[in-house]
Predict the 3D structure of the following.
Amino acid sequence: MAEIKDPENTIIIELKDGPVVIELLADVAPKHAERMKQLARDGAYDNVAFHRVIDGFMAQTGDVAHANMEKDYNPGRAGTGASQYPDVPAEFSKLPHDRCTLGAARSANPNSANSQFFINFSDNHFLNGQYTVYGRVISGMEHVDKIARGEPPKSPDRMVSVKVAADA
C-alpha cells in the first residue's frame, strides 16, 4: 500500500481483489472531498456496485440510493440516485482527467454532483473542464483495472467498504 501523507484526506476502498488508496485533492475541490469523506464515514458507500464500467474509459459507482448490493439493490435504477445531502457545485480546475484520477459524476447540470464518482482507466482529456477532478488513485489501480465491465455489468463488482484512512 502507498505511503499515506494525509490520512484525513485519503480514502481506502476495499475491492474484491484488494485495497485502492485514493488521495483526495481537498485543496483543489474541497466540497467534493468533504462529501466523499462524509459518505464514507456514514458507511453509505459500503457494498455499492460499479454500475457503469466502460473498457478504456472509466468505472463509475457511488449511487448510494439504488446500487447498494446488500440493501434495496435496483440494477435498473443504479446510476440515477444520490445521497440525502444537497448537490455539490462544480469545482473545475486545470487538473486533467488522467488515468487514475477520480471525477465527480453528474447530470447535464454542472452543479449536480452528489455521491457518484468515476475512476479513469485512461487519459480522458475530453472531460477536462467539464467534470470536477477531486482525487487520484495512489495505489491499487491494478484492482480497479479488474472491475467487471458493462453498462451495467452482468455481475457487477462492488466497493466492499470505503473508509477515511484517519478512521481505519
Notes: The mean pLDDT is 97. The longest strand covers residues 18-24.
